[in-house]
Amino acid sequence: MFLRKRRSGGKNDLKKAIGLIFMLYATVLAGQCWDGVQGGTVSAVGLRQDGTIWTWGLDDNGQLGTAESGNALYPSPSDGGPGWLSVSMQRHCIIALKSDGTIWGWGLNQYGQATGDVGEASVVVPTQIGTNQDWQQVIAGSNQSYAIRTDGTLWGWGDNTEGELGTGNYNAAGVPTQIGTASWLSIATGMHHIVGIQNNGTLWAWGLDSNGQLGNGSAVNTVTNTPQQIDAGTWIAVAAGGAHSLALRSDLTLWSWGNNNSGELGLGVSTPYIYVPTQVGTGNNWVQISAGFQHTLGLKSDGSLWSWGGNANGQLGLGNTDFQNLPMRVGVDNNWVKIAAGTLSSFAMKSDNSIWAWGLNAQGQLGDGTTQDRYVPTNVTCELLSSPDRTNPQVTFYPNPATTDVHIHGLEQLDGIKVEIVDITGRKVHSGTSAHIRLENLPRGVYIMKITADTKQVCKKFVKS
Questions:
Q1: Strand order in the sheet with 428-432
Q2: Cβ neighbours of residue 353 closer than 8 Å, sequence gap 6 or more
């Protein structure tokens, strides 16, 4: 789409056309571009329907996935372009799957968890892990990463201090290493433990068992370095928190075990530890579960959202900071479709493909442009074009529309300036530190200019005509 200047009407027609462009893009894109979201400790990642990955929050280990470091209070596109199928994040590392079956990682790489190679402490851009093209699922761990191939085999790499890799030893793995020979449906990773479901529906766990999180009935602080079966029933989904675990049976009943000091098991009891899977209530309409450090999110078949456990930062989304040891409904909406618990924050997606966040926000990990904790679900802007005009009156630029050049004024008020321009697909088309930007190589269209300095961000729309 581009602007064509009419013979009559002049500037007024041009202004109307620009306004129409902004209105149309805002209408089409607002709240309709997300496909999923994952929360880490200090940052978060979202996958858009166009196959691009966007990140926000603290960038202390390169987990935002851009060549240039810098925190982001709003979603910003990571490097790597489109073509992503899924993405997983825990703590400071992101693992993602591309449509060609390859897997990639970035962020903290202390144990090789981001790249399968311990050569660098952190990786700031998406980096391919191995050369295989037959991966179908990726799961980020605490200091490990996991992936499942199309044949159902499970592979892990990274730290193995507590037997988290399930390889029968405690040796770190610098490359993806197969975990047994079984075929797996899915796994979930906690702080130092893993729960998983094999393709036959059986439930398994391994790693650190400090609080009964392995569900094997043991009350002794032990470590299991190979997958151990918990139950032979038919299970369909698992979740793992700091030291608690949950699973869904095929009859849609919910079960939990492990640490319960903050009520994260949802059993309505004050017992600090539960050593075997125990049913949560009597309902049989649970369809999704997700666990944070000491809180849990659940989604029911009617589209309602529920939470329980620790709530010091409002991560339960109930409008307060009181912990809950029974599932509590979050709001009254019935259009939730996906949930993702971060360490001390929470994320969820609605059926209109909008994502919402609440809880700890000290590093901007909620993506709402602030560092203020949120006690109720708060919308995370889907597209810079539909976000508020976050303008510092001391910083202006002209002309707009532009043809060959854009000049920025007021930068003398800010230190450490970085100027980025992204197009309507989220692709970064310019990055630099100059207040004078040449536009000859940009096609006609609508763009966002983002000016970052320390913790300040200025975002403005402009048109290349």
A1: 428-432, 418-422, 445-453, 456-464
A2: 31, 32, 33, 34, 35, 49, 382
Tokens of 206: 């391994």
Q: Tell me: the pLDDT tens digits for 151-188?
A: 999 999 999 999 999 999 999 998 999 999 999 999 99
Can you tell me the distance from the alpha carbon of 415 to that of 136, in angstroms, rounded to the nearest whole number? 44
**If DSSP codes are grouped into helix, strand and coil, which group holds residue 452?**
strand
Do 236 and 248 meet the contact criterion of CB atoms below 8 Å apart? yes
This prediction's pTM = 0.79
Residue 169: CB atoms within 10 Å = 12
Query: pLDDT per residue over 184-214, tens digit each?
Result: 999 999 999 999 999 999 999 999 999 999 9
Task: Give CA torsion, residues 6, 10, 15, 18, to 10 deg.
Answer: 20
Please state the φ and ψ torsions of residue 183, each to the nearest 5 degrees.
-100, 130
How many Å apart are CA 380 and CA 358, to the nearest integer?
A: 10
Compute the chain's Rg from CA coordinates.
23
Q: Which residue has the tokens 């300095």?
A: 453
**pLDDT the model gives residue 29:** 41
